[in-house]
Design brief:
single chain, mainly beta, 5-stranded antiparallel beta sheet
Length: 74
């Protein structure tokens, strides 16, 4: 799935992305580290992988949890 980097804190290695419909979705250090990145700037296009879909589950909107954040390559 593709998204756009929205926020990133280099100290905690966590932040959030915006899905193409404008929905913000947070990610933690584990998801950032899984992608092998060193830095992420707001506005960069990224590829994400998520788990969970049930409403009310722990995580972001609709219970989604980001498990991987990496740069989008063409």
């Amino acid at each position: 799935m593709q998204a756009t980097a929205y926020t990133f804190d280099p100290q905690t290695r966590s932040g959030s992305v915006l899905l193409d419909d404008g929905t913000p979705l947070p990610f933690d250090a584990a998801a950032f580290d899984a992608g092998g990145l060193r830095l992420l700037r707001p506005g960069q296009r990224v590829r994400i992988e998520c788990t969970g879909q049930a409403a009310g589950a722990e995580g972001g909107p609709e219970g989604r949890r980001v498990t991987l954040v990496t740069l989008q390559t063409f």
